[in-house]
């Protein structure tokens, strides 16, 4: 593993765009060092960025991710950080479970509407066929 990364090296390493890195840098979630005019990122920046990306993938807000990262720096015992992580994870699980229930209900309603529409179309087609036969 490298000691220092350029924006492009870090982006390639993590499979993201340099623009994504600059966005998280602008939000203050990572803070590169300067090597002359070039910004360079160290292993700590890489680790923080990996936490940010994982947090976003899991649906956490940038504010929640920042709060977690701030505790990482402030609490060397990691007790508060782990408490926050547990609370936020439980909240996220609860929210996702509710979304799953809502989604299941919505799918059931849509399937019922779909079945009604198919039945109605079949009845219309049958009536049109019967009407055509009567005239013919």
Secondary-structure class? mainly alpha
Beta-strand fraction estimate: 5-15%
How many helices in DSSP terms? 5
C-alpha geometry = elongated
Distance between the termini: 82 Å
Overall pLDDT metric: 92
Largest sheet: 3 strands, antiparallel
Which spans of ≥5 residues are poorly predicted at pLDDT below 50? none
* Topology pattern, helix = H, strand = E: EHHEEHHH
Radius of gyration: 27 Å
**Helical content (DSSP H or I, runs of 4+):** over 70%
Number of strands: 3
Keywords: Coiled coil, DNA-binding
InterPro entries: DNA-bd_dom_put_sf, MerR-type_HTH_dom, MerR_fam
Protein name: MerR family DNA-binding transcriptional regulator
Coiled coil: 79-130
What is the topology?
Layout lengths: L3 E2 L1 H8 L3 H9 L6 E3 L2 E5 H15 L4 H13 L4 H57 L1
Antiparallel strand pairs: 1-3, 2-3
Helix pairs in contact: 1-2, 3-4, 4-5
Pfam families: MerR_1
Organism: Plastoroseomonas hellenica
Protein name: MerR family DNA-binding transcriptional regulator
Provide a descriptive summary of the structure in words.
Keywords: Coiled coil, DNA-binding. Residues 79-130 form a coiled coil. Pfam families: MerR_1. This protein is mainly alpha-helical and 136 residues long. The chain has helices at residues 7-14, 18-26, 43-57, 62-74, 79-135, and strands spanning 4-5, 33-35, 38-42. It has 5 helices and 3 strands. Strands 1-3-2 form a 3-stranded antiparallel β-sheet. The termini are far apart. The mean pLDDT is 92.
């Amino acid at each position: 593993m490298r000691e220092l990364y350029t924006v492009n090296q870090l982006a390639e390493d993590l499979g993201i765009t340099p623009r994504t890195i600059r966005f998280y840098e602008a939000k203050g979630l990572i803070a590169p060092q300067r090597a002359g005019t070039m910004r360079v990122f160290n292993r700590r920046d890489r680790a923080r960025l990996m936490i940010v990306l994982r947090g976003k993938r899991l649906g956490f807000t940038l504010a929640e991710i920042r709060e977690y990262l701030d505790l990482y720096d402030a609490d060397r015992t990691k007790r508060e950080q782990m408490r926050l992580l547990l609370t936020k994870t439980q909240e996220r699980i609860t929210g996702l479970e509710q979304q799953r229930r809502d989604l299941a209900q919505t799918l059931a309603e849509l399937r019922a509407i779909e079945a009604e529409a198919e039945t109605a179309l079949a009845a219309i087609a049958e009536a049109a066929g019967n009407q055509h036969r009567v005239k013919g």
